[in-house]
Every structure is written in C-alpha cells, then in structure tokens.
Amino acid sequence: MRNVALIELSESHGECLYSQALFLENSVKEIHLICHEKLADQTSFKVNNYHRNLISYQNKFLSRFQTHLGIRKYLKSNKIDTIIFNTTTGRIIQELLLFIPKNIKCYGSIHDGRKLVKSTTQKSISKRMSGYYVLNDYVKDYLIEKKASSPPISVYYPIFFPQMELESISKSENNFWIVIPGVLEQKRRNYYSIIDNLVHSPLPHNIKFILLGSSKHFNGDGIEFEKRIVKHNLQKNFIYFDSFISNKEYFAYIKNADLIMPAIEPGNEFYNTYKYSQITGSYNLSFGFGIPLLYHEDLSLISDLRDFGISYNTNNFSEIIKDLVAERKILQNIRDKIISHPKFSLQFQRENYLKHLSL
Prior knowledge:
The chain is an alpha/beta fold. The chain folds into 2 domains: 3-158, Glycogen Phosphorylase B (Rossmann fold, 3-Layer(aba) Sandwich); 176-341, Rossmann fold (3-Layer(aba) Sandwich). The chain has 15 helices and 13 strands. Helix 1 links the parallel strand 1 (3-8) and strand 2. Helix 1 (17-24) crosses helix 15 (346-356). It is globular and about 60 Å long.
C-alpha cells in the first residue's frame, strides 16, 4: 500500500483537505498532511493512519529554500511515494517540485481552470504532474472546450466536513434564513444588489440574509455595506459579523439555513471566473449539507445549479423568496433530491478520486 502526502503551502483551501483524507482512508498505508500552520484548526480532524506536519511558510528565498529542503527530507524519511497537492499553482509549487524525488508520483488540484489555459508557470508544473483534479464537472467541461493541454483531469467534490460539536444558535420557527458564505467582499459577491432589491420590493423581517464571514477585514466592504442597510432601514433583514467566526458557529448557521446563496451575479469582478472556471465554496456547502441553492438565472448553464437550486433575476428576486417561504415543501423536495443523489455520496466521490490515482 502507498504512503501518500497531501500538501498545502498556502493559507487557503483548507476546507478541501478533509474530503481527500476521507477518500484515502483505508486505501493507503499512511496519510501525511504537510500544511501551513494557519490551517491548524481546519486540519485537526481524525481519520485512520493520519499524520500532520504544520509548517511556517514565509515567502522569502532563504525561507522557501529551507522549507522545501525540509519537505524533501520528510518525504524521504517517511517513504512517501505519492504526493497530492491541494493547490497546484504558482511559483511556490514550481520551486518545490525541484526538490521532489523523481520516483514520487505527483497529482494536484486546480482551483481555477484558467491556469491550465493561460499560465506559462502552470505549463512548467504540468510536466511533473501525473494528473489533476478540478472541483466540479463544469470546470472540466470548460477545460475540454478550451482544449487545455495538461495531464489527465478528473473531478472530485470536497463536500464532506468533520463532525464537531456545534454552537447553540437561536432560530425561531417562523424565521427563514438565506445564508451567504464567505468574507464580505463586493468584488466576489453582489451584496449591494440584494440591498437594491429589498429597497424596491421589501421582505418581512422574519426573512434574514446571514452573511457568514468577516465583514471588516483588510479587503472587506463591511463599512460601506453597513452604511447602505442603515440608510434604507434594512438592519432587521441582515445578520453579519465584524470579524471571523469559529467553525462551530459557522457550521451551526449552515445546518440551520433554508437556502444557501452564492450571490454571484453579472457585474461582479470575478463573475466570469465563477461562471466558467472556478467554483465557489457555497456549492460544496449546499451539496454537503443538503441545502438548496438560490442562484442568479445567468448561472443556469451549470447543471448542478439547475438540478439542485432555485434561480432568480433582478425583477423577481423578492417574489421568488416569498413563494419559497409560503411553499416550503419545494425546498424539502430539493433537499431530499440532494441527499439521495448518488453523485454526492461518499462512495461515488471516493471511487472517482481513487481511480484517478490508480488505487
């Protein structure tokens, strides 16, 4: 049986690691996670034969050299024969690959498919890779359409999350929660459009939009957002947080959501990226917890959204929500459909993931 190393050198995408460890569990001899120390909380999960090595990664030449050399020694001493990079882009990975022994097979996830179409750095990385993963079928379709030149590509959905004791949060029976995951950045999600829709077609206060992420971080738009909802007296329709919240509180809100809303709309800076070549984590939370999606109709080309969500446009936004509050059986039917669909089962996702590794 193989010894596998999962590697994540950045501070991002920690939410994808548990699913992969779960897929590998009982199919390999040992799972070694090498990741940035800031992912400590997200990677404290338990799976069989799991070992974790936290590293402090600084983007300076000498520091990078020492870290890469340390990783090489770790791989050799633990007899690693397969590496799966959780993020397989950028100069950091390009440099690290120079330190990886030639007998180790390398695979990795691509979070933005455009890298395989346009990036010269990625072409260099691809020469050392035995295969890539992308995180939704529509991203693979995009790469096929663009005739991307790369090693074989497979798909897995990181839709499994560690069991944990959740925070106790209060939700009255008549409340209807629309959860928007992610830090509050207007360039990624169109919060102002929601405000405009509510100004023109108000919703009762029992319908609440929960913005599940920090609103007042370095790149955040929380201050401007707050000004707008105060100006239009919409405070009772929103719940939001100044700073980051714990996983226990985060997942408590997800589990109690009636809808998950990506809030990706035409006009967002990253709109075309999300439409064609990169997922948003909202999709995985929807499929992982069985919560229907509320999405802009322009994204209907994504089959998972068509099949497991409800679409809206600027003209019918509030009416769609009112109808769903009145007819909650519609949402229950979608929940049942997500939960029972074979595509979202652990067995299907594990087999698909392992097949790409020839396991």
